[in-house]
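User: Run a structure prediction on this.
Assistant: Running it now.
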Amino acid sequence: MRIRRHRSRALLAVTAAAVLGAAGCDSGGGDSAGAHSKSGTAAKAKPSPTPVWDRSPSSVAAVGDSITRGFDACTVLSDCPEVSWATGSSASVDSLAVRLLGKTGAAERSWNYAETGARMADLPAQIGQAVARKPQLVTVMVGANDACRASTSAMTSVADFRAGFEESLKSLRRALPKTQVYVASVPNLKRLWSQGRTNPLGKAVWKLGICPSMLADADALDSAATERRDTVLDRVEAYNKVLEQVCATDERCRFDGGAVYDYRFGTDQLSHWDWFHPSTDGQARLAEMAYRRVTARTPVT
């Protein structure tokens, strides 16, 4: 009887241990061991996504109008592309291209296709020229001549201005899907009038045909003249809204946030020939604004 009782107790102990062990495997302890095993395996790190905007493009092409050609910055009624804010070589300007590429790089890998007198309707053809170079960045400054017409009725309509910019951006994107675009706002033409109207030489040059819709009868302050200038200003602001809206539809396009429009060009920043176009110093300010936005981590809002 003692032997049987001993064997029965031993058998009972073994059975209980087995049951408890099984219960332990089915409890949280078993899951914990599995979780520990998983946590002990190093998870593969996900690669950081490549930013859409490249803050250091390796080539630059400029399109636009007389401002990008450096018109009247060096001599009267003449282009001076060496002081262009976008691609100029002048050390006194330190153009966007020079800031991005260095002096040698800018000489080899930047191109200026802007034309004095150009309007939005001319932009698609300029884009076509730029595309042939396959630049990584295209700068756009256009719109002043669309407002600077013989009369306010001759100004480019907002609808046509939008259509021209959309066409230009789409044609660029079809040819160069990853090329970036920096878009400068149209300057405040009324503020330029107010700065230059006190200078006799500037007003004399204005009479040769510079922006008549804004600058004609420069000394006139009657209601008709005021309404005319306000009409031009309203159109410029509408153009800038178009530039902002269309650019916002393209993830590789950056608008300047109205920086050029808001900038208060003083006498040092205006051409001492016509007191309307940017001087060499004014071109340097434009280059600085562009560089700040092209190299910013996030776009201006």
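The chain has twelve helices and five strands.
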